[in-house]
Amino acid sequence: MADNGSPIRGSELRTASSQDNGPSRDAELEFSVTEDKMAAFIASYTPAQGDGAPLSIALMEKELDRAGYKGQLNPDGAKFALQRAEEGKSILNVALVRGIYAQEPEDAIIIGDADFRFPVIPGMIFGTLTIPIKASNGTNLLGDEIPVLKTNTPESLTVAPGGGCTHDKEINALISNTYGLVQIRDKQIYVESLISVSADAMQARATIYPHDCFGSPLSLQSIAPALEAAEISRPLLLVAGETAIKTAKETGAAQDTAIAKGTEPIAGVNGWFEYEKQEAHSIGTSLENDRIDFKERGTHPMVTPGDIIGKIHPPVEGKAGEDVYGRMTPPPGGQPFEVTPGAHVEPLPDGITYKAMAAGMVSLVNGELSVIDVLETEADVDYSTGNLRLEKGSVHVTGCIREGFTVHVPGHILVKESIEGADVFAGGDIDVNGGIIMGGKGHLKADGSIVAQFAANSRIDCGDELTIAHEVSNCMIRCKGSVTATAGKGVIQGGVIASATGIEANELGSDLGVETVLTIISRQPVNKELVKEREELRSRLMKINDSIGQDSDENTLARTPIDKQEQMGKILLLRAQIKRNLKNVRNKLSHELLDYYQTLERLSIRAKRRVHPGVVVKIGGKTLKVTKTLNRVKFHFDSGTRTIVAVNL
Question: The whole model's pTM is what?
Answer without folding.
Answer: 0.50
